[in-house]
Write a structure and sequence with these properties.
It is built from 2 helices and 7 strands. The chain is an alpha+beta fold. It is globular. The protein has a 5-stranded mixed beta sheet. A two-stranded antiparallel ribbon has the order 3-4.
């Protein structure tokens, strides 16, 4: 569904839940998630799945957990080689919550 318009020579790897994912230096992490087919990253209080939506930091639907424990909007953080991210939705499934 999503693809790069112009291939880049700045290929790096970021890690989502420990799995290496290709990215380009400086691209929004939300774009990487969508290109990988990850449409939902957490659930709402009513258990509805939520994921990247506005791509400009307004809706707060793309919240991800960084390696250091910070919770950030995926559309507001940029891919750097070795970046480690954890998706709250996946963690909920693993713990059974």
């Amino acid at each position: 569904m999503f693809r790069e318009i112009k291939p880049s020579d700045n290929d790096i790897s970021i890690f989502i839940n420990g799995e290496a994912v290709p990215a380009t230096t400086g691209e929004p992490v939300a774009a990487v998630l969508l290109r990988q087919g990850i449409m939902a990253v957490h659930t709402s209080p009513k258990n509805d799945q939520r994921g990247p939506y506005c791509m400009m930091g307004v809706c707060f639907e793309c919240m991800v957990t960084c390696e250091d424990g910070r919770v950030e909007q995926a559309c507001q953080i940029y891919a750097e080689d070795g970046l480690q991210l954890y998706l709250p939705l996946t963690q909920q499934k693993e713990t059974g919550k």
